[in-house]
Amino acid sequence: MRTPVIAGNWKMHKNVNEAIDFFSAFRDRGNREGVETVICAPFPALPALTEEAKGSRIGLGAQNMHWEEEGAFTGEVSPTMLKALPIDYVIIGHSERRIHFAESDEMVRLKTRSALDHGLTPIVCVGETLEEREAEQTREVVRRQVVAAIRGLSSDGVTRLILAYEPVWAIGSGKSATAEDADEVIRFVRKTVADQYDQQVANEVRILYGGSVKPANIDSFLAMGEIDGALVGGASLDPESFARLVEAAHRRGDLK
After folding, report:
1. pLDDT surpassing 80 at residue 211
2. Is residue 250 flagged as an active site residue?
3. Using CA atoms, how far apart are residues 132 and 72, in angstroms rounded to an integer?
């Protein structure tokens, strides 16, 4: 059985003190067996959070990284810097990176491979825009992004990463795909992995849904057979709401 993942993406929110306050309020309720709980915080907060997270099951992640270990890349952070903190997860290819910072499929591929090579778990984001959805291009876009991200990886590498289907039109909009629609696309994502490798590899990959996930709708997503958890934006900023998402995933594990 695939362990569910609830990953919070704080984006550009919370200074160091706010991050520590959040963790103090969240730690006990978020420290659940049977759930992989991850907080992806801004870079300045990560060193303090690594201290706060000691002795807990709560993992920490970055929101981006460069694929090179060092070099003349002003403003970037390398995988070796993250591992030295230590950090175990990193979000790769979020739509906000693709749209606002012109990250290409090739850059996502390089970052994914580098993260795996350095012992990090990449959370690789894929998803279509509203225009692409209305043009009935969802599968074409998602397939292209998935194939590009995993190209050249070993089977073991693919099973170690996490994929996140995040329709761009649902991120931060208050709108979300229906659980059935999300499950259908995620089933297609899994089939895409199977087409590139085999069904056993595809069955091992955790695939999350992201896009205006909150306590009011998390149960409907987790009830779907293909959805292995959520990559959460706004609802991860409040310790109470984020804890409720983790508790929902914990209940799902008990039911299974």
Report:
1. yes
2. no
3. 36
**Is 34 among the annotated ligand-binding positions?**
no
Reference 222, options 186, 169, 168, 172; nearest CA is 186
Q: Is 15 annotated as a binding residue?
A: no
Taking the C-alpha atoms of residue 176 and residue 5, their distance in angstroms, rounded to an integer, is 19
Residue 234 annotated as part of some ligand binding site:
yes
CB 59 within 8 A of CB 38: yes
- Whole-prediction pTM: 0.95
16 CA to centre of own chain:
22
100 annotated active-site? no
Is residue 34 helix, strand or coil?
coil
- Going from the N-terminus, what domains does the chain have, and what CATH number goes with each? 5-234 (3.20.20.70)
Out of 94, 128, 226, 250, pick the active-site residue: 94
Q: Choose, from 96, 103, 166, 226, the residue flagged as catalytic.
A: 166
Q: What is the mean pLDDT of residues 102-106?
A: 97
**189 touches 167 (CB < 8 A):** no
The amino acid present at 111, given as its one-letter code, is K
Question: Tokens 């059985």 correspond to what residue?
Answer: 1
154 in a labelled binding site: no
The whole-number pLDDT of residue 212 equals 86
